[in-house]
Automatic annotation (TrEMBL):
Keywords: DNA-binding, Transcription, Transcription regulation
One GO-annotated biological process of the protein: regulation of DNA-templated transcription
Origin superkingdom: Bacteria
HTH luxR-type domain ranges (all copies): 327-384
Iron among keywords: no
CDD domains, per the entry: LuxR_C_like
Protein name from the UniProt record: LuxR family transcriptional regulator
Gene Ontology molecular function: any one: DNA binding
Organism: Kribbella turkmenica
The keyword Nucleotide-binding belongs to this UniProt entry's keyword annotation: no
PANTHER family the record matches: DNA-BINDING TRANSCRIPTIONAL ACTIVATOR DEVR_DOSR
Length: 414
């Protein structure tokens, strides 16, 4: 229950927030403004290809974003950034300058508290952009976190954006905040963030791969190699050569680098020359062990200083499914049902996706609940987070403080 002091602060903030209704203010944009906006998007795209880990990418991108969409309060300068596992939509890290959010406390709010504009809401939003003002019909005081956290920290508005890649995968979210008296987030600012989101998602996706490749935690961690424009190796991650050994060499190798890696680098360079921005490429290659690898190239730098970063990883990596079996003893079908629940699927969605009757879905749910000792879908999602992802978010918090690259996916104790 909010204190009387909090209630007064809420009323004061509501007076200072312009535009009390649920609508979004319209702002006219000049030709110069459109040009600046396109230039900002091009800069974000180039950064997404620059071979940066997530923290370095976000740090360089922050001023580009906030120049177009102002963010900040008396105590908060940069947006808050969250990485999520696209397989489960569960948070794997929280990042922001001066961010002191406890991952466990935040996820208890995300998963167990009835409130507005959470991660699940925005990743299922067709546009992928939500404001607290719109979600509450112009009455943000309806939100517990607004009353109990935002107002005491000088925040009166919030814009939540899903970092959704072009293929529909969600790699994270960002929250931008404004102080009482600041203008409302305009429709034009919201549209800019919607346009920037896929580019940012690509940078986050690549950043997670860079972090996992440069400081591998698991045997199948991605491999990374940096090449010059002439195809010479400049650096390699610890596991890159092992990946090379699984790639076909029917056409031979150049200095030990398989043709498929060189081809991905060449394709990225061609794309960069054609677009005038950072070039990317991706190809799926059959490996000698019978599996498939995704080989992805990205151009960094410009002109004679250009380098090409190539990342190799297993195609269709799914790291949560094996844990659902080993921890809870779920069958393959129960794993499929659970993963769809994690991504917000209804009984009808599950029945359609798995070609099952709703009754059969309910029977699988009953078995899953019994094996995991929960009574509802919400409890199931929370249990999987605290069993499989809580250690990851806390580990990433420690890594951020130590200025080490963060990693994605679940993490359980050995």
């Amino acid at each position: 229950m909010a204190s009387e002091l909090q209630r007064r602060a809420v009323r004061h903030a509501m007076i200072l927030v312009s535009g009390r209704g649920g609508g979004v203010p319209q702002v006219r944009i000049t030709a110069a403004g459109r040009h600046a906006e396109q230039a900002a998007l091009a800069r974000i795209r180039r950064l997404s290809c620059a071979g940066l880990d997530v923290a370095a990418f976000v740090n360089q991108m922050n001023p580009i974003v906030t120049q177009r969409v102002s963010n900040g309060t008396a105590t908060i300068d940069s947006p808050f950034w969250f990485t999520i596992d696209p397989e489960s939509h569960l948070v794997t890290s929280i990042y922001g300058e001066g961010c002191d959010i406890d991952p466990g406390d935040y996820m208890r709010w995300e998963l167990l508290t009835d409130d507005f504009i959470k991660t699940a809401d925005v990743v299922h939003s067709p546009r992928g952009v939500l404001t607290l003002h719109e979600a509450t019909g112009g009455h943000p005081e309806r939100s517990p976190i607004y009353v109990e956290v935002m107002i005491p920290h000088g925040m009166a508005q919030e814009l939540l954006v899903a970092l959704r890649s072009a293929n529909g995968e969600n790699w994270g979210t960002t929250r931008l905040n404004r102080a009482p008296g600041d203008p409302m987030f305009s429709e034009h600012e919201i549209s800019f963030m919607a346009a920037a989101a896929p580019l940012i998602a690509e940078g986050v996706r690549r950043g997670l791969l860079v972090g996992e490749a440069t400081e591998p935690e698991r045997l199948d961690a991605p491999g990374l190699v940096v090449l010059t424009v002439g195809g010479e190796v400049e650096s390699m991650s610890p596991g890159a050569e092992e990946w090379f050994s699984f790639l076909p060499d029917d056409d031979g190798c150049q200095d030990g680098v398989p043709t498929s890696v060189l081809a991905a680098a060449a394709a990225a360079l061609r794309e960069a020359e054609g677009s005038g921005a950072g070039g990317v490429s991706a190809v799926r290659v059959p490996m000698t062990n019978g599996r498939w690898a995704d080989v992805q190239g990205a151009v960094t730098g410009a002109n004679k200083d250009s380098k090409v970063t190539v990342i190799i990883q297993q195609a269709h990596p799914n790291r949560i499914a094996p844990l659902l079996m080993s921890i809870y003893g779920l069958t393959v079908r129960e794993q499929e049902v659970t993963q769809l629940i994690l991504r917000g699927g209804s009984t009808t969605d599950l029945a359609h996706a798995l070609s099952l009757s709703p009754h059969t879905v309910q029977q699988h749910l009953k078995s899953i609940f019994e094996k995991t000792a929960v009574n509802s879908r919400g409890e199931l999602i929370a249990k999987i987070y605290f069993d499989c992802y809580d250690l990851r978010t806390h580990d990433n918090r420690d890594r951020i403080q130590a200025e080490q690259p963060i990693r994605g996916g679940p993490k359980v104790s050995a």
